[in-house]
Amino acid sequence: MGLTEADAKALVNEGVLSADYDEHKEAIEFYDKALKIIETSETYLNKGISLVELEKYEDAVTCYDKAATIDTNDSLIWYNRGVALTQLEKFDDALSSYEKAIEVSPGYADAWYNKAELLKHKGQDVEAETCFAKVKELEGE
């Protein structure tokens, strides 16, 4: 008998537990096993997060890209893609990812904040201040 979607979900849960204990290599092994059963955006997202923790940013971006082909409307995918791209100093691509996260979830304060930081880094201070103001508004400050 073959493995089922329920088996894949159990493997993802094991991966998340491993990641919670900073066992990211082990977590990735669980995610890879789950992906052999069924490819889900959640599994690719979680694998990407663990890859970032291991500073494997290019591999993480690949996972986020695969996740986004499955679910284009998950702001967490786009946000985390932006984080990985920022680490790779691919600032324009990172900015696009944060903008997509905001498009999907306009109230995503962390995405607004990271967008502001990137704009500030690029010398676009007026645009950055607008984003920082949005963060304050969203956080009720």
TrEMBL record:
The keyword Lipoprotein does not apply. SUPFAM superfamilies: TPR-like (SSF48452). It comes from the Archaea. Transmembrane segments: none annotated. The keyword NADP does not apply. TPR repeats lie at residues 41-74, 75-108. Keywords: Repeat, TPR repeat. InterPro entries: TPR-like_helical_dom_sf, TPR_rpt, Ycf3/AcsC/BcsC/TPR_MFPF. SMART domains: TPR (SM00028). It holds the Pfam family TPR_8. This is Tetratricopeptide repeat protein. It comes from Candidatus Nitrosopelagicus brevis. The lineage of its organism: Archaea, Nitrososphaerota.
